[in-house]
């Protein structure tokens, strides 16, 4: 049997969950409960709240805590909850980390401070301060395309020595660097980009944190399930089936939050509008999303 080389501390199949709003743009906690329960029922082993997909830049600290409590109430212990707490300010991130712990999160997602572009020694000190602030395990979020700062492999290797830094959400697009850290540490590497799920898993990754899992959780989970069962051909088939939908949702000119919410709204699931400065997808874009979705999920892989 083929299996992932790295234990998955938060589960293997994680959804970067959207944050539902009502028609007025207010936080929809009932919708969040319903969507969380739906995602877990469809195969998500963990939910990442208040990340990029969760519109964290435009939700308040109080809304972030309320969202954690609502989702915990909904899913209980059937899924892990990882709370996005990363900001450009170390003090604010520490505050959000402590609030997330009190609200019932199982772990923290901490993105590199953005805009200020701290050097590697300052970046390392930032992550260590966050990890020291609570008893929760930490998933580092390496997405230099958005933050402007890479968490260099050598920095990752040093940070792996901290007892509470246990995982990485990897959007660095560097197979050599990621493979080097996986080989040298016990860090659980989660693919943060859907086209990277199978390649990263094959070199020792732990699973994925996915925006597309909001709309096709079963399809993406089937990639890692098939790989774990030793059926690499089926894993590849699932990977290939997902690619056109991944491209439409994540790489077609709109943020994944916008496209995922468009599909969820079309499916009658809780989502609602996006908050400005984001804007909703137009009807032509929605038609393309629906066509890609139908093609991806119309039949079981191998069926």
Question: How would you characterize the overall build of this protein?
Answer:
This protein is of the alpha/beta class and 303 residues long. The chain is 46% helix and 12% strand. It has 12 helices and 8 strands. The protein has an 8-stranded parallel barrel with strand order 1-2-3-4-5-6-7-8, surrounded by 5 helices. Helix 3 (90-103) packs parallel to helix 4 (120-133), helix 6 packs parallel to helix 7 and helix 10 (232-250) packs antiparallel against helix 12. Pyruvate binds at residues 53, 209.
Give a topology summary.
Blueprint lengths: L12 E4 L12 H13 L4 E4 L11 H15 L4 E5 L5 H14 L3 E5 L8 H14 L4 E5 L1 H4 L5 H7 L5 E6 L4 H10 L3 E4 L5 H6 L4 E4 L6 H12 L3 H19 L5 H11 L16 H15 L6
Parallel strand pairs: 1-2, 1-8, 2-3, 3-4, 4-5, 5-6, 6-7, 7-8
**Coarse shape:** globular
Low-confidence stretches: none
Number of strands: 8
Helix content: 40-55%
Structural class estimated from helices and strands: alpha/beta
Mean pLDDT: 95
Radius of gyration: 18 Å
Strand order of the largest sheet: 1-2-3-4-5-6-7-8
Biggest pleated-sheet summary? 8 strands, parallel, barrel
Task: Tally the helices.
Answer: 12
Q: Give the end-to-end Cα distance, rounded to a whole number of Å.
A: 22 Å
Instruction: Provide the succession of SSEs.
Output: EHEHEHEHEHHEHEHEHHHH
What is the beta-strand fraction?
A: 5-15%
């Amino acid at each position: 049997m083929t299996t992932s080389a790295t234990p998955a501390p938060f589960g293997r199949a994680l959804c970067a969950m959207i944050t539902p709003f009502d028609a007025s743009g207010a936080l929809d906690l009932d919708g969040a409960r319903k969507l969380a329960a739906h995602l877990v029922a469809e195969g998500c082993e963990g939910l990442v709240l208040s990340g990029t997909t969760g519109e964290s830049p435009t939700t308040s600290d109080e809304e972030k805590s309320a969202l954690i409590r609502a989702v915990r109430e909904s899913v209980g212990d059937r899924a892990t909850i990882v709370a996005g707490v990363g900001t450009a300010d170390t003090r604010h991130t520490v505050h959000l980390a402590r609030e997330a712990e009190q609200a019932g999160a199982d772990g923290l997602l901490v993105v590199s401070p953005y805009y200020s572009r701290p050097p590697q020694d300052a970046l390392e000190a930032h992550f260590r301060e966050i990890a020291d602030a609570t008893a929760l395990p930490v998933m580092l979020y390496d997405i230099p395309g958005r933050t402007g700062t890479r968490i260099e492999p050598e920095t990752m290797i040093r940070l792996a020595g901290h007892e509470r830094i246990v995982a990485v959400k990897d959007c660095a697009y560097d197979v050599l660097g990621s493979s080097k850290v996986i080989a040298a540490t016990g860090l659980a590497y989660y693919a943060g980009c859907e086209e990277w799920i199978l390649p990263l898993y094959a070199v020792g990754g732990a699973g994925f944190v996915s925006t597309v899992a909001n709309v096709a959780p079963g399809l993406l989970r089937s990639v890692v399930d098939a790989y774990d069962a030793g059926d690499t051909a089926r894993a590849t088939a699932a990977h290939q089936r997902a690619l056109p939908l991944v491209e439409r949702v994540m790489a077609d000119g709109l943020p994944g939050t916008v496209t995922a919410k468009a599909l969820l709204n079309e499916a009658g699931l809780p989502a609602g509008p996006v908050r400005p400065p984001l804007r909703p997808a137009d009807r032509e874009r929605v038609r393309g999303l629906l066509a890609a979705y139908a093609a991806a999920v119309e039949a079981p892989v191998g069926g």
